[in-house]
């Protein structure tokens, strides 16, 4: 089984003291089963760009670079087939819809804290906080 990590999962893991349930789940899943979307990378980059210059921003930039290296080969593009699937299932806010379409396109379980947000499109969801 393969998992697409939503932005909120990666954000949780970037914290100095992440929720132990999320951390435990993440540590138990084989690395090769974990994926991220280019949409999530864009959301993270946008969040970092909105931060003021300083130690926290620099720390996040370092973490983000390490994240991209760690997921090299497991970063999913937003391609034509995914775009067409998104167009048929547009019932979510834009970014959530793009991430959901990516999970559906690749038959992956979407790992997120926002299970109810994705119910309208029928994507399989796992909440590691539960």
Number of helices: 7
CATH architecture: 3-Layer(aba) Sandwich
Widest beta sheet: strand line-up: 3-2-1-4-5
The secondary-structure element order is EHHEHHEHHEHE
Number of beta strands: 5
Structural class determined from secondary elements: alpha/beta
Overall spatial form:
globular
**What's the structural domain tally?**
1
The top-level CATH class is: Alpha Beta
The percent range for strand residues is: 5-15%
Mean pLDDT: 93
Distance between the termini: 19 Å
Largest sheet composition: 5 strands, parallel
- Computed Rg: 15 Å
CATH topology: Rossmann fold
CATH H-level homologous superfamily name: 5'-nuclease
- The low-confidence parts are none
Helix content: 40-55%
Layout of secondary structure:
Blueprint: E1 3-5, H1 7-13, H2 20-28, E2 34-37, H3 38-49, H4 55-70, E3 75-76, H5 80-88, H6 94-105, E4 109-111, H7 115-118, E5 125-126
Parallel strand pairs: 1-2, 1-4, 2-3, 4-5
Helix pairs in contact: 3-4, 5-6
Give your account of this protein's structure:
The chain is an alpha/beta fold. The protein has a single domain (3-126), classed as 3-Layer(aba) Sandwich (Rossmann fold), CATH 3.40.50. The protein is built from 7 helices and 5 strands. A 5-stranded parallel beta sheet has the order 3-2-1-4-5. Strand 4, helix 7 (115-118) and strand 5 form a beta-alpha-beta unit. Helix 3 (38-49) packs antiparallel against helix 4 (55-70) and helix 5 (80-88) crosses helix 6 (94-105). The longest helix has 16 residues, at 55-70. It is globular and about 45 Å long. It starts with a strand and ends with a strand.
């Amino acid at each position: 089984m393969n998992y697409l990590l939503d932005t909120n999962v990666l954000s949780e893991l970037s914290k100095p003291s992440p929720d132990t349930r999320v951390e435990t789940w993440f540590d138990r899943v084989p690395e090769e089963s974990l994926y991220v979307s280019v949409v999530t990378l864009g959301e993270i980059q946008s969040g970092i760009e909105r931060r003021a210059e300083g130690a926290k921003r620099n720390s996040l930039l370092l973490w983000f670079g390490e994240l991209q290296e760690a997921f090299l080969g497991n970063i999913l593009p937003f391609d034509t087939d995914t775009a067409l699937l998104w167009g048929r299932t547009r019932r979510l806010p834009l970014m959530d819809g793009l991430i959901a379409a990516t999970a559906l396109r690749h038959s992956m379980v979407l790992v997120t804290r926002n299970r109810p947000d994705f119910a309208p499109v029928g994507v399989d969801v796992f909440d590691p906080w539960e």
